[in-house]
């Protein structure tokens, strides 16, 4: 079946028809089938048993009436009713009862029919069976004996509503709809469960493969069942094709970056050697050689950062996870940065430093924090200090780096974490920035399950907040 729409439509249609057919079969078995025949046999046996019992009671009633009178007859009939849990009426020729009790209209109608036909008559109502047949005394006085008993509709264990258990009350609801309803729900539930499982199983596999790809495992594939031929199967094939092409492109990209890195580093190394040789032979060319050396260093740094960013964007971190003491790591970074800015009329202030330890890669965390701190030092105003705080809460650690530079336009606060984004092209080049440091910081923090945001300070400068889970 190729179409998923047709599969869903026909499956639900089949489930509905199956449930309806089962309901019809239950009704058939209850009314016409073997159960119905059994019910009729029970009713017939009840009629025969009641007729036989009434015939004996009738003969005894006639004898008692002739010998003991009306009071003895009434006492006898009451005793029989009590023993057999039934109702018995002995009617005179004017259709009045000897006991002067009121009779239901169906009983009166059946008695008149039996008297007119001079034969035994019976009637089966929803709750009882009534039998009437004529009697004659020795002086040919005509009477009619009418008896009724409860109809056996269900097994005796279900008759008394007060004695029913919970499951019995549910199974035998009013009008006996309980069992068909339960069967319909059972069949529909099983059918819909199997259908839902069949439809969602490949979607779950597709979701699992997608999650694996999002974590950097581009070898993830969806298992395709050969017997399935629908839109979900086509989607699985398309996903596998996309995954294969993505994996191929990323593999080619990594190989290209590795080859470019190798090819660029080799001439850069030779260039630096040539600069040293030229410096020894041509002392008057020192300014030019220094410039070449500086640009070579920046190019080396750019290559290193590109390789790191490429690795992080692919969520590929080969660094060993270890226990990282963030306060110790920050102290180390600040110590190195203080040494580098000794002659720049700038400083770093550690305003607050809690003791905090997390699990992660010390290499990536060092790069992330170092890039953020160096970024602040690069733009903070002369004579000012970059302020750093490390605070610890129950669930996470917060690191705040604040500088007193020009800040960033509000619309660019999120874009500064994108590779090669420059708020001011000339200023970035003069400061020596490559536009990759904050992008590396964002990727490294994200790989540790954290977040990094930037916002402008109220009194000028930029604030970068880093949140890392404990």
What would your notes on this structure say?
The chain has eleven helices and eleven strands. The protein is α+β, with helices and mostly antiparallel strands and 470 residues long. It has three domains: 4-178, Beta-Lactamase, CATH 3.30.450.160; 231-313, Signal transduction histidine kinase, dimerisation/phosphotransfer (DHp) domain (Helix Hairpins, Orthogonal Bundle), CATH 1.10.287; 322-469, Heat Shock Protein 90, CATH 3.30.565.10. The strands form three sheets. A five-stranded mixed sheet has the order 6-8-9-11-10. It starts with a helix and ends with a strand.
The CATH C-level name of the largest domain is Alpha Beta
Shape: rod-shaped
Helix coverage percent of residues? 55-70%
Overall number of structural domains:
3
Instruction: Fill in the CATH topology of the largest domain.
Output: Beta-Lactamase
> Mean pLDDT, as a whole number?
78
Counting DSSP E segments of at least 2 residues, the number of strands comes to 11
Rounded to the nearest angstrom, the radius of gyration is 49 Å
Largest sheet: 5 strands, mixed
Number of helices: 11
- Strand order across the biggest sheet? 6-8-9-11-10
Residue fraction in strands: 15-25%
State the end-to-end distance. 51 Å
Going by CATH, the architecture of the largest domain would be: 2-Layer Sandwich
| Main structural class | alpha+beta
Q: Helices and strands, in N-to-C order? A: HHEHEEEHHHHEHEEHEEHHEE
- Unreliable stretches covering 5 or more consecutive residues: 155-161, 170-175, 425-430
